[in-house]
């Protein structure tokens, strides 16, 4: 049974507050709509100034084995006759381990230092006030970062270089690399409880159009006028050396050039310098008859510590011999304003195709949500012809508008119960444009029960941080659909996987036995390990120490599964210790309150030189240049491709506030006229 939707704030009691929200909404919308393709600049009085700083960015990727090493360069040039401070909000992959920062000023090179976030910010502010050139990079979310550059002199060039690494994605025999280029506007949820008339409202969360989360830096969005192309430039080069001949190298959303200088070596270059309004995705497949069953890489540090990176893909016969079980499929589709346009059409196509793949033994339901819950049915229904036609009509009539109130949708589908006799799988289609991710992760963990949550990222620049983490906590997986042409193959791949039971209860232990005769536990991440589905490998980073062998165990429909791996036979690789630390930080933050694990996360991040919520990189030119910035600038992001925002629709109540505000202003005008 679905929980009944209810609005805590009623329209009749919000008319007075509506006028204030209207003004703020119009101001926000006007500032976004008039944004420059380059930068938005303000003087000390808040007046808009002409842009005069050019920002270009570039990325170079080097893929060896399962690890992608990336160098990102941000190039700032100040063409003003005065000095400026610059700020840039930018995305990186949600699993990136950022471990180095360097500032280049002409021929001078200043290496960034990792420090506690508060101390790094203080050092940066002191340098800025002293007229020194400095840079600060911090993490706003795991996929959203902020660079601040102080005192860029007139005519100066400043380059900020960041290094990160990640494990590349591998499923169904295909490797994939994804690099985000812009940020989908985030919705900041708003809720309040009204007391009896005459009493002061108890506001639990501030209105989305007024306040963002504490410390949140909102991106600006550029618009093009008169058909002009955006002036932002981005270059990307990918060097691939996996020692195998590759086939079917392709980028579905961008034009690329491919070179093959030697066997097993490939160089891919982006051929669209202005393509900064959609995520870049490169897929490539090794030429081999059988899928890789296992890969193991190791790294030993100078202090003697050993770390391993394991990819394990069990043989297909673990699944193909298994009888198909009855399922309850719940499709949850985001119909908020940020989904308007291309994203909504992709979501509808995905739903229509998903319905065509249901089996007669399945039951299902479809739930649309924005700031309201819109179920097709109050209860799941059998997947017969009548209900499938009913579902198709329901999907056809879905419209994108309102706010992204994901918590209400989760309340409607996650009941915290065990479901005996069938598999309960929740498929969540959204662009994930919210800012309260941590609250939602905790909510999923508390309400999951034995359900499994599978997220599908919709649109040209979805919030993959939310969707991948939500799938981690929901014991499911994340799928990215970036265009209508991806719908059929990606949904078919997902349903092939969901149609078979998972390998569950996966654990990793040492072959060594303790005094109690039990296998010794290992420190590995992610922890707990997710369920394993058809064609998707286990990717796990593990601290090995002196372990000679490790065991992976789990449960299948045919009985227990046990695989032994020799840790001495792993291929040597660099950066595994950082990936292990990055995964440990991720798990600590996912399953605990931030303040409870702050000291542990901070210590790990400082030890392994990683950005985290509690650390930042700072670089300061020690020789005072006596340059004092006269203005502050912020680089503008491009709106994601296909996103149309005629009103500030990431705020679910914006239309209501505008209408009520206009009514209020009309009322004031009438009263004044009568006087």
Structural class: alpha+beta
pLDDT below 50 for ≥5 consecutive residues: which ranges?
Answer: 3-50, 192-210, 224-230, 646-655
Quick one: biggest sheet?
9 strands, mixed
| Helix amount | 10-25%
How many DSSP E strands?
39
Mean pLDDT: 79
Please tally the helical runs, counting DSSP H or I stretches of 4 or more residues: 12
Strand-residue fraction?
Answer: 35-45%
CA-based gyration radius? 26 Å
The N- to C-terminal Cα distance equals 56 Å
Q: What general form does the structure show?
A: globular
Describe it:
The chain is α+β, with helices and mostly antiparallel strands and 675 residues long. The chain contains 12 helices and 39 strands. The strands form 7 sheets. Strands 1, 2, 5, 8, 9, 10, 16, 38 and 39 form a 9-stranded mixed sheet that branches. Strand 1 and strand 2 (48-49) form a beta hairpin. Mean pLDDT is 79; it is low at 3-50, 192-210, 224-230 and 646-655.
